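Lab channel / #folding
Pinned by the channel admin:
"Please post every new chain as: sequence first, then the structure tokens as a reply. Keep commentary short and put observations after the output so the thread stays searchable."

First post following the new format, from NK:
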Amino acid sequence: MSKSFQFRQFSLKQEKSAQRMSTDSMVLGAVAELEGAMNILDIGSGTGVLALMMAQKHPDALVDAVEIDADSAAESMENFENSPWSYRLSCYAESFQDFIRDETLHYDLIVTNPPYFEEIHTQKGGNKEWPDEKRRAARTFSALSFDALLNGVERILVSYGRFYVILPIQAESEFLEKALAKKLFLFYRLRLQHDAGSEIHRLILGFQKTEADLSENVLVLRDNEGNWTEAYKALTKDFHTK
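Reply from TO:
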């Protein structure tokens, strides 16, 4: 992935962050929505792409981002300051657990591309298939468990708010069970396929504090030639330059 990326309305520098911009974040940012949202939170900001997408989509909202990795948080802030919405964007270099100790925090829209790889321990230490240490720390349950995430979201999400998360398909059952225990009800599910012949590999789930009819769909990302599908291009047209 390039160290910089140009969107329609903002640019993204990604030289230091443990997590760079991904297709997962693009789809999540494109579908996460709450009409009239005024206070938005991006948990695990990385380069800040989700927060920037939220600021573009919701012109009246204040957008906060929390990022435990200091270098990533600094890069998020730099990207925020270089955007058209710098006065509405803030990034906090701390864990989500520490961030929500502020009892006054409340958000009507929360988005996250959370850590979901369980670390594998071997007798000799690190698994050679893992990426570098910073990326591993950003993408493992040790950084933010599902329980810790959902405990915090349940507390700071307002009664009419929405919470969107992207997960691997294998994590769906566990996450749904834990969310329901917190009385966070599923109202949206989008399953992602790399191409028409592949298995579902990711899904985006939307939750709220009141029960509602479930909206479901499947998004195929690439066609048989490896190009982006018309559905993906239509979904992300407000952000991608091409």
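NK: The chain is about 30% helix and 25% strand.
TO: also worth noting, The chain has one domain: 4-118+131-236.
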